[in-house]
């Protein structure tokens, strides 16, 4: 019961911050119904390792075999194969989406720097957009946008409002010093 109340309260508090505009709805539609890419991905921690693997891939070694043994990405168990992605999806790093933008099936990306790692991707196939028009999905896109933003903003707000840890000082000398310091803070303007 308390959890339901908490979620309802958080949902109500974040409503004024939601931004459900036309460009966002159209982007969601393109993510769901536009062209997508089936890719394989290798992620490694160092540039040196990425350069070594890129050279091996360029010379013809099988992407899935290398991904299975060397990648640190969760897709390694599937030979680096990830669920189809949209280049509109901000969940994927912009550097990787940019690299994939002008590529065709079978092509290999250059090494892509992702914050603290290095990635190499290969496009397996291009999945054509379906013929579902935007207006027929407007309600679905609006609900999806609302739900996604609510979840993100609720989590952010819950983090800001979370319980602050309290300290219990066990050492008597340190406890006395702490009390003196707390008294000074309360007396300050």
Structural features, described:
- This protein is 51% helix and 12% strand.
- It has 189 residues and is an alpha+beta fold.
- The chain has seven helices and three strands.
Q: Pairing-aware structural class of the strands and helices?
A: alpha+beta
Report the count of strand segments. Answer: 3
Biggest beta sheet summary: 3 strands, antiparallel
Low-confidence stretches: none
| Structure annotation, total helices | 7
The helix content, as a percent range, equals 40-55%
**CA gyration radius, whole angstroms:** 25 Å
Mean pLDDT: 88
Order of helices and strands: HHEHHHEEHH
What overall form do the CA principal axes indicate?
flat
Major beta sheet, strand line-up: 1-3-2
Strand content: 5-15%
In angstroms, what separates the terminal alpha carbons?
A: 42 Å
Structural descriptors:
189 residues; alpha+beta; 3 strands; 51% helix; flat
Write the layout of secondary structure elements.
Blueprint: H1 2-14, H2 22-33, E1 36-44, H3 47-58, H4 63-70, H5 94-100, E2 112-114, E3 117-127, H6 134-161, H7 172-187
Antiparallel strand pairs: 1-3, 2-3
Summarize the structure.
The chain is an alpha+beta fold. The longest helix has 28 residues.
